[in-house]
Specification:
The chain is an alpha+beta fold and 295 residues long. Helices cover 36% and strands 21% of the residues. The chain is globular, with a radius of gyration of 22 Å. The N terminus and C terminus are likely disordered.
Amino acid sequence: MSTHRSDRLPGRLPDTFTTPGSSSFLDFLSGHAPDLLPSHRAASHAGSGAAPAAPHATTIVACTFGADGAGGVVMAGDRRATMGSMIAHREIEKVFPADEFSAVGIAGTAGLAVELVRLFQLELEHYEKIEGTLLSLDGKANRLSTMIRQNLGMAMQGLAVVPLFAGFDLDRGQGRIFSYDVTGGRYEERDHHSVGSGSVFARGALKKLWRPGLDRDAVVRVAVESLYDAADDDSATGGPDTVRRIWPVVAVVTGAGYARVPETELEAVVEEIVAERRGLAGGGRGAAEQGGDLA
């Protein structure tokens, strides 16, 4: 009996794993085990007409810094996940390294979003090992677009995932930001952007706080302050929790790579913002109580 077939030898991988093919892990998984993809899993509520109760994650902001973004990009996310009117989690992480030179922030159905991020990380690592080089930033953005498009069926059932992607383009020498819609549409954003339920309020803050040429520390503060403003008006966005000492997740991506901002630094930034807001609020109340003319 012939024993050259790997599936007849105990302990050997199936031929699929040793056959040359695409450098895309997503393509490999689609052909070998499509049931493992998040987009191939049937939602339990299908046909019921109502989305299942699942934690949702918001809000994410991203800003470039340095002259023409040459310094890099900052991405930040609050820590709250909601399920309807309830707070499902107070310390969820929404900002992750996609690879050494890029970051991805999640908004939408939390469980699916985290799984998509892990698959995206594996996709980029697989490409690097097969090709022996990094995928370009545009290539990474396109791969993520394809993954989101494959989740359209789940999105139509109420389980949408809409990430924000940013990174340092080694070819251009600058930070760049990409946003998406649920159909996989990819859009490059200029200077700054925000996604999630609090994005309207965060974008308003970014427009007023961000300026060209800001350095890394200044843009970290802009990102944190925009999340602070979003939390002030959006119940699904969690503000800094000084009692539980829960701070936003903030990451900086430069030509040196991905780095998470230490919590000690974030604590100092939050305290500065809170102190400033407290002073402004106190001044406003004092003027009103004294019947002063605010015109």
